[in-house]
Amino acid sequence: MEIFLALSPILSIFLFLFAFKQTSFRSAIFSYFVCLGIVLLFQPFQLHMGEILHATAKGALICFIVAYVLFFGIFLFHLMNQIGLIQSIASFVSDTTNDRMMQTLLICFGICPLIESASGFGIGFMVAAPIFLSLGYPPFQAALLSFIGLLASSWGALATGTIIGSQLVNIPLSVIGSSTAILSTPIFAYMMITSLYIVGGWRAVQEKWLELLGFFLLFSLSIFLFSKYVSVELAGILSPLMTIAFGFIRIKASAAKRKVTYSQSAASLSGENRSIIKILSPYLFLTVCILLSRLIPNVSHTLQSTFILDLPSYSYKLALLYSPGFWLGLTCMFTIMLFHVPFSIVKQSLCSTVRQWIPFAVTTTMFISISEIMGVSGMHQLLAQTAGDAFGKMFMIVTPFIGAIGGFLTGSNAGSNAMFIKLQVQTAQHVGLSWQSISISQNASSSISTIACPSRITLGAYLCNIPSRENELLRTTTLMISGAVMIVLIETVSWLTMFQ
């Protein structure tokens, strides 16, 4: 009975989402009240109202870390979309190549991961989806491909989630980063093949096998080498830059064979005089700012010690100026000034941002609060201990699914690691498994499952203007991500079986 009660908040989320076909917003609220009822009425997990409010407030504070970034990310998108920059990026890609497959590879494994690694929290998706729509991709297809572009979420927001995992279990960052890259390599191949299949079926995969192989080898090898020998934080930025360069080189080589002029189409954008550098300047500005804030010690120290939101009673600390959210806000101001955006457009973009941001913020707060309440009430500990006792060394089979559930619920690798990585490690030590391998499996599975986070699916459905297909989008994305989690499972079991 206690196990069922401990599982009930998680099961209720799936029940409301898939059985009753409720939106993520409603499912989150209903599931929160299910969790609330359990900790108020049932003795094994009973909490006082003060403890519940404390856990809920902490959930809201954790959500604020994400919401702070996301608000300005959505605002930047609306600004760029209103003044035509998103369309200009789409035109550049379109003018560079008419090949649908190459467009897909460039956006999914170049542009989207680059922006996501610089800013995190799904912002890469918010940029990629409008580009796909502008290129004429069907809305449902555009949403799926944009989610695939988040395949390197372990390195999102300068690898924030991986850094948290490293600190919580005391593993060197280069070790957990490079090991996650190894574990993610088959997932990269799976996602690249899936992207081409979505656009053109198996025939597209067969026709573009050489380009697919090139993108895969360059992306996976570079992200591993940069993580191991350069910097985990920068690996997610440098690797997509290399794949983008490879893509344009490949396109240019192909155009030369067909005697098609490449430089002219790449230099001009549908007759516009804007250069690609100016069009991408908001993202370049954002990337440079974030890099400088991390790479220059004096700047980094100043930002981390100024304007700190410090709440010791919640074990909560947020450097407001060090967060990507601050730099995104600065980038919005930069964009407004550089392109002389009229006040009417700024106001309209702000209103659109608020309408999209509020459901996401409420949904994410509810999910994280559920996790916090479960942790405080002992539900997490009971589930981990029970799993360890029930499975023994076969707990390795459960590990990827625990990580995946955390990523699915919170939409954040950082949130999932904060919730589960210590419990995973404790359980691994309890049953005699390699806790380092278990923590790496947790990091990989939680990051890839953030793609299917219900609140992110909601945002994607509205962004692509298909709110009526939200449940269909959730089912399809969940099925796709389940395949990636199964890959992590096979790798985890194989690794621990051979080397345990």
Automatic annotation (TrEMBL):
User: Which stretch is the leader sequence?
Assistant: none
Q: Indicate how the chain sits in the lipid bilayer.
A: Multi-pass membrane protein
The answer to whether the entry has keyword Transport is yes
What keywords tag this UniProt record? Cell membrane, Membrane, Transmembrane, Transmembrane helix, Transport
One of the Pfam families matching this protein, by short name? Lactate_perm
Q: Which InterPro entries match?
A: Lactate_perm
Q: Where are the transmembrane segments?
A: 29-47, 59-80, 100-133, 145-169, 181-200, 237-255, 276-296, 325-345, 357-378, 390-409, 479-498
List where in the cell it is found.
Cell membrane
Q: Does the keyword Membrane apply?
A: yes
State the function annotated in the UniProt record. Answer: Uptake of L-lactate across the membrane. Can also transport D-lactate and glycolate.
What family is this protein classified in?
A: Belongs to the lactate permease family.
Q: This protein is called what?
A: L-lactate permease
